[in-house]
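Record type: monomer structure entry
Structure origin: computed from sequence
Chain ID: A
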Amino acid sequence: MSGQLERLLKIFHTVKYLKFKQIYYRVYYRFSEPKFIKCSQPSSSEWQWSGPLLNKQSLFSITDVKFLNKAGTIKTPADWNCASKPKLWLYNLHYFDDLSSQDAAKRYTLHKDFIEKWISENPPCSGNGWEPYPISLRLVNWVKWCSVQPEATPKYLQSMLEQANVLMQQLEYHILGNHLFANAKALTFVGAYLQGENSGKLLAKGIKLLNEELDEQFLSDGAHFELSPMYHEILLWDLLELIDLAMTSKRVELLDCLPKWTGIARKALKWLSSIIHTDGEVSFFNDSSIGIAMKPHQIFAYANKLELAHTEVKGQLVTNKASGYSRVSLANYSVIFDHANVGPDYLPGHAHADTLSFELSIGDLRVFVNSGTSLYGTSQERVRQRKTAAHNTVSVCGLDSSQVWTGFRVAKRAYAKLEKSIINENSVKLVASHNGYLQQSPKVKHTRELQCSLDSVIIRDMLSKQLPACFHLHLHPDVDVIKLSEKELKITKDDEVLCLISSSEPINLKESTWHPEFGKSIANKKIEIEFTNGTLRTVIKQIKRDS
């Protein structure tokens, strides 16, 4: 197959899942640019934001900034849209997250100067800062910041209203998902804070969108439908802030939404507790990374502050059927198993080809990890981090379980099914399969069985045909690996033996990288076990962690 034909087929199998609304607005926005509307000065409400301000400091002077672990300087108007900087880094520059950061009050003068700088150096409807997603995050931060000042600066209030009016003209219907939710949250915050002009219409539109998107985006088991633990954290925090906004502003329109919003939040909190490791941080399925969203313990603390009682997961087995993730918790270890689809068919941009992968912690130490996410964009490294080989699962004939390509695209994709879930005293058995390779050539079904007992996990990978395949297994960089024989390894931490790994086929060790945060790549070891007979048995045994 020629490269051009292969690309055309990928495009076809990507586009065919899109909603008509996405296609329509993608075309519409290409030929219709937003118009700047000069507004008369609105007034502000008297309420003050009292929610937690927990972002990391990112502004250090009027010129020195740091985002995604990369420092930069903003000395000229052109630097706001510097072509040599990654798009996501530039987006962060325009978010103004430092206004909602720890010790933000100590940087009042810097914040005021930076807001002035943004207004003067970012002309309306021009550059990254006037795109809908940066507008949305910036508006929420500006509202919070302005609400706690002794007197809100009229110029800032007017700018917020003008930005919100531009946002209204380019709501992200072409993307949907978390982007549209962020748009709705921004309209709601601005509409609840500003008084005068069309602030009431902004609030009404924001609430309407929020309620529609909440029905769409949160599944019955509480998971955010893009199935990324990191984005689940982000959207759950957004929801908690909206609940806080209703309680703080006491706007009747918002208070009427509380029963619905708090009910969804409680389910989402429970789901989050099932997807985090014993170290307190999220697992790395799909686009997930530490340091972007609030930490789980911060989310739970905020929920408690809002008096949102929620049920934490308990027991040897928790299965989230709607989202497709199961958690096994036994005396010495825990396993999180992915038998999920890639996410909504029309929005798989944050999906990885990680179907039937798992992560395992022994005690409070991560041992087997998916490789994580360190960057966005369209680079080869971005694609590599999304591919099957970067996750603890099986590739067949060098293919990926889902056809991830470029930065945020998926063509043919795997659909998974949990076939068995059996729990006995001190043991759990899970069996799941997916059809990702059935949609490609040479058409083979992958089934994975996890047999978890007190001191071992037995992994059986079964293919419906005998074909060249490889089980990829990534080790956390904090653990060491010693090869005992051709088919057996020992995993240690500070001379403590954590477990032994044995397999029915020879085990190969390779150098790799782990990506726990954006901008970070840490050297680690990777296990590869090749097999051709259609069946592979791998045992993680004598699992223990000294107290």
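Annotation 1: The chain is about 30% helix and 25% strand.
Annotation 2: The CA atoms of residues 324 and 340 lie 4 Å apart.
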